[in-house]
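Hey,
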Amino acid sequence: MMSRIISGIVLLVTVYIGISHGSRVFQRPSEQYLEMMDALGITDPMRIAFGVLSIASVLLILLPRTFFIGNTIRALLLVFLMALSLKAGNYTFALIEIPFVMMPLVLIYLGHPLKFN
């Protein structure tokens, strides 16, 4: 029972973060944001693809049947961003992303809060 509550809380936080970060690509980006993306080597089409994939993965996480694939996509996106930041020498950004990479992995471990065995 407690694991379902924790899973539900982590799921809600993941959904909020995924949608808020993914929806940023549809807003006018700040100069600082564009500089950071440019330093990571992320072009505008890549940035839009990341945003769409982020929102799509969160929507997949909401459904018990697609929960695993959504979390897997989300974890892979975050690891890819970490790899790009390490390549660019931005170690701080890579370290900041570690808790966010852990969230989908913890969710996979805990399982979907609404899935009944």
